[in-house]
Amino acid sequence: MKLKKILCALLGAAMLFQVTGCGNNGTEELISETPTSGNEEAGAGDSAASDGNAASGEQVTLTFLRAGTDAEKKAFWDKVIADFETANPDIKIEYQECSYGDDFETKLNTGFASGTAPDVIDFTLASMGTRVPLGQYAALDDYAANWDGKDDYMQSALNLGTINGKLYGIATQPDVRLLIYNKELFETAGLDPNSPPTTWEELEEYHKKLVIKEGDTVTQTGLSVPTSGSNQQHYLTIFLLANGEKNLVDEDNNTVLCNSEKTIEAAEFLKKLEDEGVIFWDSTSSDNNPFGKGLAAMTYANTTDFNTWNQGALAGKIALAAPIKKERQATFCGMGFMFMSGETSHPDEAWRFMEYVASAETMWTRYEMLGVPPVRESLKERYIEQDPEPNAAIYASIECGTGSPKVAYSNVVYNAVNDALERIAYGVEDPKTALDTAAQEIQKEIDNQ
What is the pTM of this model? Predict the structure, then answer.
């Protein structure tokens, strides 16, 4: 059976279940029409004229659903929505939130199956591969064509929101993997704490100097490389990108790349570091990372991890480095997006809200309230001035960042590659054999689409 048919059947089944525990319990609007192309300039006073309610002078209500229930982000959204409604009195935002995972997916599935989907959705890059083919996220190119902010957006952020040349997501919250290092351990090993590695060769050299063993037991490692868990594939992605490969899969033509020559070379490099000496750990949780315990001199993690570690026992001892390279500078970068529902009855109003959220002013408010790095070029210097060393490294990492493949079978990619990397780490199979097996599993799923 085709994957799309299966997904549609699942969405239909979702109508039988009542979603519970998902934030605001307000009634959602009944939504049935397909969005119009919206050629008017976004944010113009008459952009709501295409909507019947707005044309008659009535206030339009948009349902906005965001993933997550943390209080800090709720405070940010409360402010943004209040400011937006003040500036746009013809639009009311009905705010809803729901925890990540099955609850959020069920909430969306139920909404789309019953015709009550939210107008605007704040969710992750990972959802695009499944929901774009089903028409649940609207293409935004007609709006973006007249959007002044497009030229100010980082190209990498725009690329992450694009599938097959069409823009579906407006980037708001990067989740970039940063090279973090322990300056104190560098000094102890005779390395310059202000000169982190910049190439594969330097990384290997530093790693060897930083490994400490007691007999056969590694008590300190250089680069903390995970040997199991759900996020191993992020590490491989970092190195295959730096080696010049596009991704684990070419999402434009469904070509499997996880066993390409460049990817295998990246896996062999990681295995070389593991053989030199690593502390085995499960990447499913960053709490397991030896770096946070002071047992590793380098690792890859996101800004949240960096801030957490820099406030504990490692405070003042750690720093961020620019992405390393072989053929190019690159790293993994996930992203949170604003999506417009493909079923909204109020596309022009939805775009006005999205444009407001993506504005430079709102983006800076997000940074001030939540510490989220901005993805606009006009904010680059201002952002770096706030904290020059780490912020420069963060911005450079986002600029050259690439996310996971936006394909409907992404979970198969993650699982197959993670399993392969675990077999490699434990010496069960060599990199080529393990990644060839992963490629076969992924290709089988592609053939069943």
Answer: 0.86
Cross-strand partners of 338: 122, 170
Tokens of 307: 């801030």
pLDDT averaged per 10 residues, the chain (length 449): 43 36 33 34 35 64 97 97 98 97 94 97 95 97 96 97 96 97 98 98 98 97 97 97 98 97 98 97 95 98 95 95 96 98 98 98 98 97 97 97 96 98 98 98 96
CB atoms within 10 A of CB 246: 17
Give SS3 for 122: strand
The CA-atom distances, in angstroms, between 404 and each of 239, 249, 346 are 13, 9, 31
Could you tell me if 166 and 372 are in contact, meaning their C-beta atoms sit under 8 angstroms apart? no
- Rounded Cα distance between 379 and 152, Å, is 9
Of residues 151, 21, 24, 165, the one with CA closest to residue 92 = 24
Question: What is the token pair recorded at 313?
Answer: 């026992």
Report in angstroms the alpha-carbon separations of 426 from 221, 284, 286, 330: 17, 17, 20, 27
| Structure-block tokens of residue 317 | 């001892």
The closest alpha carbon to 332, from 254, 242, 203, belongs to 242
Q: CA separation (Å) from 87 to 81, 82, 248?
A: 10, 9, 44
Alpha helices in 122-260 (DSSP H): 128-131, 141-144, 155-160, 183-188, 200-210, 232-242
Secondary element (H or E) of residue 155: helix 155-160
Buried b / exposed e along 310-324 (16+ C-beta atoms within 10 A): beeebeebbbbbbbb
Look at phi and psi of residue 254 and say left if phi exceeds 0, alpha if psi is from -120 to 50, else beta.
left
The pLDDT assigned to 218 comes to 98
**What whole-number distance in Å separates Cα of residue 336 and Cα of residue 161?**
9
Quote the pLDDT of residue 312. Answer: 87
- End-to-end Cα separation, the chain, in angstroms: 8
Q: Is 229 helix (H, G, I), strand (E, B) or coil?
A: coil
Any idea what DSSP says for residue 344?
-
The whole-number pLDDT of residue 23 equals 38
Question: Tokens 């997550």 label which residue?
Answer: 68
Distance of CA 216 to the CA centre of its chain: 38
Two tokens, residue 440 = 């076969």
pLDDT of residue 449: 85
